[in-house]
Write a structure and sequence with these properties.
- The chain is mainly beta and 144 residues long.
- It has one domain: Lipocalin, CATH 2.40.128.520.
- The protein is built from two helices and eight strands.
- Strand 2 and strand 3 form a beta hairpin.
Length: 144
């Protein structure tokens, strides 16, 4: 019995340390982030082997929680609520950053190719591109 507990704890510790998505706490993008546009708050979470992000708050959502996705280029999606809307999807970890994902911008209804690059424990750079070099980069700050 004395050997079982230390062995089990050692195995659990090894499994947690080996998890690639969460291996470096300072490099992790999981959590809530403040965007520079209209005080948006996006919650980034694991989605299988990738990460995704939902819009959970903004100045406009606080004024009108029933706000809809009226700028979407797909008319059938214009009735979706902005609160809780998936705006980041399909990002895969790639040598210290997250690439290959999509960024949906509810302000213009466009979907862009994206890259997320951690720039420290409490900030990240999100780059969205129509096609390179037509890109825009924002710095997001972690909310504690």
């Amino acid at each position: 019995m004395r050997l079982v507990l230390p062995t089990a704890l050692g195995m659990v510790s090894a499994l947690l340390a080996a998890s690639p998505a969460f291996a470096d706490e300072a490099d992790s993008v999981i959590g809530k982030w403040r965007t520079p546009s209209k005080n948006g708050v996006v919650e980034i979470a694991p989605c299988g082997a990738s990460i995704c992000g939902r819009l959970i708050d903004s100045d406009n959502i606080r004024k009108n929680p029933e706000l809809r996705d009226t700028e979407n280029k797909d008319e059938s999606k214009r009735g979706r609520k902005l609160k809780g809307l998936m705006i980041l999807s399909g990002f895969e970890r790639d040598d210290g950053k997250w690439t290959g994902g999509s960024v949906y911008n509810p302000e213009d209804g466009g979907t862009y190719k994206g890259t997320i690059t951690p720039t420290g424990a409490n900030s990240l750079k999100l780059k969205g591109c129509i096609v390179w070099p037509l890109c825009k980069t924002q710095t997001w700050k972690r909310i504690r």
